[in-house]
Specification:
Structural class: alpha+beta
Shape: elongated
Helix content: 10-25%
Order of helices and strands: EEEEEEHEEEH
Strand order of the largest sheet: 2-1-7-8-9-6-3
Largest sheet: 7 strands, antiparallel
Strand content: over 45%
Distance between the termini: 22 Å
Number of strands: 9
Radius of gyration: 19 Å
Number of helices: 2
Length: 146
């Protein structure tokens, strides 16, 4: 199954997550000046944060389990990760700001048979070269299984 998204060393395949929703948000900060008897003057004062939101349901018995996904996203919280789409289009450097996992239909082992995972990533600046190279090499090792 093809990879649909890469976050750092985490490769998310199409068969892993049912109903994966990927959305991006960006905006501009505006200042509105009401001028007496005139049109409202609008001035751009900066940019809003670029964010990526992911939502989907992972079955814990699939090849890529929900527990692995939740653990990987927790480990990435607050660290800069390179994000790419499945076609290898680089989206840039992002930090996982928030991650939630909701288990439903809890089984005997305490793991839900349906686990809904959501994550919010916030665009960040590029890390220093030494940090970026270390991050990329760690991710390449994970992909190759070393």
């Amino acid at each position: 199954m093809p990879v649909v998204l890469v976050i750092g060393g985490l490769r998310i395949k199409g068969s892993s997550i049912s109903g994966l929703t990927y959305s991006e948000a960006a905006g501009a900060r505006l200042a509105r000046h009401n001028i007496l008897r005139g049109p409202v003057k609008v001035e751009v004062t900066g940019a809003e944060e670029d964010t990526i939101m992911l939502d989907g349901m992972v079955a814990p018995y699939e090849a890529f389990s929900s527990l692995e996904l939740a653990t990987a996203l927790k480990e990435m919280l607050g660290t800069k990760q390179l994000v790419m789409r499945g076609d290898m289009t680089v989206k840039g450097w992002y930090m996982v700001e928030r991650m939630e996992a909701e288990h439903e239909y809890i089984g005997a082992a305490g793991v839900g048979r349906a686990v809904y995972v959501s994550a919010e990533l916030v665009k960040t600046d590029k890390p220093p070269v030494s940090e970026a190279n270390g991050s990329l090499m760690t991710n390449v090792r994970k992909w190759l299984g070393f």
